[in-house]
Specification:
This protein has 520 residues and is an alpha/beta fold. The protein is elongated, with a radius of gyration of 36 Å. 33% of the residues are buried. One of its GO terms (molecular function) is phosphoric diester hydrolase activity.
């Protein structure tokens, strides 16, 4: 090798203060001198602030071992003739076909060009260059490093962007399939944090359209934003107003923008403000974001903009469902009212608790919502019974009682005439609500799991709430007394597995019923 190779100087490169991660270079050659010379020649080489870090292998098998263990090798200078005449060619083939590494740049070097002609090697192997050792001067080696490492850098950028796009697509699918506002917001945050930062601290906030105008006119507008999703430091703050960490002057700048999507990165924090058509505002705040490329920023803006639309759509759907549910609860309470001498929310409480208990049994969110609706009208057969009782002054005989119970069960027939899913669910509940787990119920003496699951769930929550509710003939009993009654009749009246789930989550169930107190 000539002196040019050892002592020529490369053009100076501008120093970058923050030392970047080095490019990993693998030298594969059975000649120790080649390793030494290559390291010396490239000791000062830099590309975009990245130095070189050298890894040495002295045979094809050693090279494979290193490549199996390290996925960050950017380039390999690979000798052709080592333990065999074609050991380097075998390693090149193995890298592309067996290891399936398409990013690493492969440069074959040979001191015996006759062993593997260049044209044949280039045609048969997926390599980036093929050099004879005698022609690879220092200048040519540096040029080779620039071209190969730039190609590796650009291919890596393409691969990262491809993975980022895949993440956005997958994240969108996961987020938009969420069935609840909490699940949707948490999904958005988790996916965004995974996409742009190593920090887990993020919050997603919302303000109503009625508050948006006032919010833009005051520096004290933080109470208008409510945290609807949070991770890390903000996970326990869901449902609370935003009170800290936020630069409100920056928020106001974003609010004054005519664009419906605006974001800034300030003090290593991400601020994204998204205004929907209904003028509701969403604020995304993420702590400690890394530097974002223009593509990252565009993908992030697109993803969160679409997410805010999804949240608005889910909010509208939930509002519509809540209105529908309230209407059916009113119907159910009107049916129940003549048998309870006060304005009672027994129907609503039993249905809401049944929906939550269904979730504990493994039901989907949609199935639980359907159960709530069906639970509000299953007792429609009671209407004709109440009318008959109102017209009678005499005491009921056993025969009269059985006849009246048959009319209660007739609610099944009324509901089955309506061709909707909720009516059919309610019909099944009406048919089985008076059955008992041990087979001693009414009207068909069904036993165990033959009883409709929704009827088994509602039988427990309805009985529990009835015990906890005031009646003219007794006062409401304590949570402990009601739970004891349910437990005593587990395996007799009630499904023991569902009883166990309810008692394990009794505090949560009790909080639900306390949201709907009776009116005297």
């Amino acid at each position: 090798m000539n002196d040019d190779f050892l002592f020529s100087e490369d053009e100076p490169e501008i120093e970058i203060k923050d030392e970047a991660e080095p490019f990993q270079i693998l030298i594969v050659d059975d000649d120790e001198e080649i390793h030494t010379i290559t390291r010396m020649a490239l000791s000062d080489f830099k590309l975009d602030g990245h130095r070189l870090n050298f890894n040495s292998a002295y045979s094809g098998s050693e090279a494979k071992k290193i490549l199996r263990e390290r996925s960050d090798i950017a380039m390999t200078l690979l000798d052709v003739v080592m333990e065999t005449d074609h050991a380097g060619l075998e390693v090149a083939r193995w890298i592309r076909q067996d290891l399936k590494n398409k990013l690493i740049r492969i440069v074959l070097r040979t001191g015996q060009p006759g062993q593997a002609p260049e044209e044949d090697v280039i045609a048969r192997y997926d390599i980036d260059d093929y050099k004879e050792k005698t022609e690879l001067t220092y200048r040519k080696l540096v040029t080779l490093m620039y071209s190969c490492l730039r190609a590796y850098r650009d291919l890596n950028a393409i691969e990262r962007n491809k993975r980022g796009l895949e993440k956005v697509i997958n994240a969108s699918a996961e987020v938009f399939s969420a069935k609840s506002m909490h699940g949707l917001c948490q999904g958005i945050l988790e996916q965004l944090v995974a996409l742009i930062t190593h920090s887990d601290d993020a919050m997603y906030c919302r303000t109503d359209s009625t508050e948006a105008e006032g919010l833009t006119a005051t520096l004290e507008g933080n109470h208008h934003f409510e945290i609807i999703g949070g991770t890390g430091d903000y996970e326990l703050a869901i449902g609370k107003p935003v009170e800290q960490d936020i630069d409100w002057d920056l928020i106001q700048q974003l609010q004054r923008s005519p664009n419906h999507v605006e974001f800034r990165i300030h003090d290593n924090n991400y601020y994204g403000l998204y205004k929907t058509k209904g003028e509701r505002q969403y604020l995304l705040f993420i702590k400690g974001v890394r530097e974002l490329s223009e593509l990252d920023q565009n993908l992030l803006g697109l993803f969160v903009n679409n997410s805010s639309i999804a949240i608005d759509n889910l909010y509208s759907r939930d509002t519509e469902r809540a209105q529908q549910r309230e209407l059916l609860y009113s119907v159910g309470e009107a049916i129940d009212k003549r048998s309870v001498e006060q304005i009672s929310h027994h129907v609503k409480r039993s249905a809401e608790m049944a929906g939550q208990l269904a979730i504990y049994t493994g039901a989907s969110f949609d199935d639980a919502e359907q159960l709530k609706l069906a639970a509000s009208v299953y007792d429609i057969g009671k209407v004709s019974v109440q009318m008959e009782l109102a017209q009678r002054a005499d005491a009921l005989s056993i025969h009269d009682y059985e006849d009246i119970m048959q009319k209660v069960i007739k609610g099944h027939d009324y509901l089955n005439q309506t061709d909707t899913e909720i009516a059919h669910l309610a019909a099944k509940i009406a048919q089985d609500i008076h059955e008992r787990w041990d087979g001693s119920g009414f009207p068909s003496q069904k036993k165990g799991r033959d009883i409709d699951l929704n009827a088994r769930i509602l039988a427990i929550t309805s009985q529990y709430d009835a015990i906890r509710t005031d009646r003219t003939y007794r006062e409401a009993q304590t949570m402990e007394s009601a739970a004891d009654y349910i437990l005593q009749h587990s395996g007799k009246f009630f499904d023991p597995e569902i009883v166990g789930l309810m008692l394990d989550n009794l505090d949560a169930i009790e909080k639900i019923r306390q949201r709907y107190p009776d009116q005297r």
